Model the fold of this input.
Amino acid sequence: MSTLFSSSYPSPGQQSQPPRPMPFHMTDPFQDRGMGCFWLSADDHVLQFVSHLSCVLNMSYMSPFVRRPQGRALIAINPRYDVQEVWLWIYELLETETREIELDQTWENAITAACTEEPDDTDYFD
Done:
């Protein structure tokens, strides 16, 4: 399985593990100092991905005098965009990227073989 974000759910063939939290959580959008905002709770690599979207103006981790909460940021939406549309687009983007996709066993075997094989430098120059 290959997606932008690692999945939080084990596939049916894996051993039973304790439940894990959702890969992300977004609050409903709200107005803060005239800006459309929402809180996003996720892993740091998800927060970094969202921070680089052009529709995101900035990310705040609360006050600079308070220790940054791990994995949570206040996302401010660029006022050039519709707040509801941006929120829904980001939600759908993250939902799509974090969805687990079941691969056929042939693909799973091929990926496993490709990841475990050590490259032979001489094959590249034949």
